[in-house]
């Protein structure tokens, strides 16, 4: 019970402001890794994923929990701290889980041709997040960036949908990076 | 001194989350206008309510805020917005472009090149570049969806047919990353080249029209033109009469009722820094030290 009530922002307005700046910079500069703090979500969820949930979700944002993230402890934590309604993948505005648990990502909303912003944002939990591996180019990247992605084919397919598509926040421990739909992903 | 009667940066947290979600989608789809639930702000529409909401959603207590209106730090609009955030967010403020982390701007891009870590927030009156060509939102939305931008080229062509050149001097339409045509807000077209490849994050907020859009750093931003009538970033063909700068955007100031005029930098921080470095213009007081 206690685990549900604790682990939120102690000072929501300033902590979420700092967290959002990290998310904004991350989304603006794909592949760059930022460290965030302030959330202590129940296992198995990372600090960074907890921070993203607290900063971006509330009772107006349907959330899908995939795989191990769909546990009693986390459902309670989200219910208490954000109030986000938990929904199936097809209705989700945000989704949280490991990359394999989120598959097939074709279940998620990719937006509509006239409203491409009405698409899901995936918070993808990773075991490692390092500036190496897949080559990233596109808006927000001066020359190229490298990021240890779980795969490249899925992200290439997502890029092909542009301006529709999914946007990803990649989390590992207290660190996060982002991969918007506009980024071109190539094998290392 | 932060006013404790308000939440940090004035807006409530749920509103900020809504704006923040819109900002992330705007960065993910460069140049696309994301609808958002624009709030009433304690200032009239047209005074930067969109920019102020974006600034409020981005500010942290560690930020140093600069606010400019047509390049000037000392006009009513700039002073009151700066004071608003001093009071509600307790942030430091500055007039120096290089020292600012967040810059809210009305209709100019600072002369001094921006760097990584800075955010430029534009106040936008009419975000839809096609609005004066097609008044119906349903139609312009469809035109963006289908990349149907021929009408904009017709407008630029009609400029050439009538005036011999593209007469659009401000709010000059651009194409972002080869996809969306975007209104860069009513900045002079002199500033358009600074939109492209800029290391800073550029965010656009239109309060009355309830739209947010963005240009990520180092993005490809092309001003629309024709092969035989290429885009020209024009300015008044003078030097600044106070600092002597030949490369900055100039305001024309009428100084008496007989048509005497002077030209001064529209960017007050740029002009003041140059004068502090000892640069002088045609009308600088003789032997004066700033």
Overview of this structure, please?
The complex is a heterodimer of chains A (188) and B (290). With 188 residues, chain A is α/β, with parallel strands linked by helices. In chain A, 28% of the residues lie in helices and 23% in strands. Chain A has helices spanning 2-5, 12-28, 47-56, 72-81, 99-102, 153-160, and strands at 34-35, 63-65, 94-98, 110-112, 115-119, 121-125, 134-137, 145-147, 167-172, 175-179, 184-186. Chain A is globular and about 45 Å long. The radius of gyration of chain B is 20 Å and the shape is globular. In chain B, the strands form 3 sheets. In chain B, strands 1-9-8-5-4-2-3 form a 7-stranded mixed β-sheet. In chain B, strands 7-6-10 form a 3-stranded antiparallel β-sheet. Chain B has a two-stranded antiparallel sheet with strand order 11-12. Chain B is built from 7 helices and 12 strands. The A-B interface holds A 12-14, 16-18, 20-21, 23-25, 27-29, 55-58, 60-61, 113-117, 119, 121, 138-142, 162-163, 167, 178, 180-182 and B 7-9, 13-14, 16-18, 20-30, 32, 34-35, 57-62, 119, 141-142, 144-145, 177, 179-180, 199, 201, 214, 216-220.
Question: How do the strands and helices of this protein lay out in sequence?
Answer:
The complex is a heterodimer of chains A (188) and B (290).
Chain A: H1 2-5, H2 12-28, E1 34-35, H3 47-56, E2 63-65, H4 72-81, E3 94-98, H5 99-102, E4 110-112, E5 115-119, E6 121-125, E7 134-137, E8 145-147, H6 153-160, E9 167-172, E10 175-179, E11 184-186
Parallel strand pairs in A: 2-3, 3-6, 6-9
Antiparallel strand pairs in A: 1-10, 4-5, 7-8, 7-11, 9-10
Chain B: H1 13-28, E1 34-35, H2 49-58, E2 64-69, H3 76-89, E3 92-93, E4 102-106, E5 119-123, H4 137-145, H5 150-163, E6 174-176, E7 180-182, H6 192-195, E8 201-206, E9 211-215, E10 221-223, E11 250-254, E12 261-265, H7 268-276
Parallel strand pairs in B: 2-3, 2-4, 4-5, 5-8
Antiparallel strand pairs in B: 1-9, 6-7, 6-10, 8-9, 11-12
């Amino acid at each position: 019970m206690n685990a549900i009530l604790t682990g939120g922002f102690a000072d929501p307005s300033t902590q979420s402001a700092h967290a959002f700046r990290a998310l904004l910079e991350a989304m603006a500069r794909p592949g760059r890794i930022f460290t965030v703090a302030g959330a202590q979500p129940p296992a198995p969820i990372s600090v960074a994923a907890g921070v993203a949930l607290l900063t971006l979700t509330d009772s107006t944002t349907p959330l899908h929990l995939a795989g191990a993230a769909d546990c009693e402890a986390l459902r309670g934590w989200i219910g208490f701290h954000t109030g986000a309604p938990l929904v199936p993948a097809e209705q989700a505005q945000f989704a949280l889980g490991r990359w394999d648990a989120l598959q097939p990502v074709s279940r998620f909303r990719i937006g509509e041709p006239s409203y491409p912003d009405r698409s899901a944002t995936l918070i993808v939990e990773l075991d490692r997040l390092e500036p190496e591996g897949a080559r990233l180019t596109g808006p927000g990247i001066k020359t190229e960036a490298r990021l240890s992605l779980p795969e490249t084919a899925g992200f290439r397919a997502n890029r092909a949908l542009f301006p529709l598509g999914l946007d990803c926040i990649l989390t590992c421990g207290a660190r996060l990076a982002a991969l918007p739909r506009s980024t071109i992903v190539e094998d290392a | 001194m932060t006013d404790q009667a308000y939440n940090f940066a004035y807006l409530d947290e749920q509103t900020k989350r809504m704006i923040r979600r819109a900002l992330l989608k705007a960065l993910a789809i460069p140049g696309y206008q994301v609808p958002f639930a624009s709030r009433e702000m304690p200032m009239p529409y047209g005074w930067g309510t969109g920019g102020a909401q974006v600034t409020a959603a981005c500010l942290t207590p560690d930020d140093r805020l600069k606010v400019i209106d047509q390049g000037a730090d000392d006009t009513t609009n700039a002073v009151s917005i700066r004071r608003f955030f001093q009071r509600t967010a307790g942030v430091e403020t500055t007039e120096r472009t290089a020292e600012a982390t967040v810059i809210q701007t009305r209709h100019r891009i600072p002369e001094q090149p921006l760097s990584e870590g800075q955010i430029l927030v534009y106040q936008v009156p009419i975000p839809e570049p096609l609005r004066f060509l097609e008044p119906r939102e349903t139609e312009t939305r469809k035109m963006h969806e289908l990349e149907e931008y021929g009408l904009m080229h017709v407008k630029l062509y009609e400029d050439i047919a009538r005036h011999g050149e593209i007469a659009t001097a401000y709010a000059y339409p651009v194409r972002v990353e080869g996809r969306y045509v975007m209104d860069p807000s009513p900045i002079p077209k002199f500033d358009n080249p600074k939109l492209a490849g800029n290391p800073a994050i550029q965010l656009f907020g239109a309060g009355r029209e309830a739209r947010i859009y963005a240009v990520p750093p180092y993005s490809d931003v092309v001003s629309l033109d024709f092969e035989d009538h290429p885009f020209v970033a024009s300015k008044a063909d003078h030097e600044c009469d106070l600092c002597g700068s030949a490369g900055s955007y100039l305001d024309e100031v009428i100084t008496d009722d007989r048509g005497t005029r002077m030209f001064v930098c529209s960017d007050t921080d740029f002009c003041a820094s140059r004068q502090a470095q000892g640069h002088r213009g045609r009308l600088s007081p003789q032997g004066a030290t700033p």
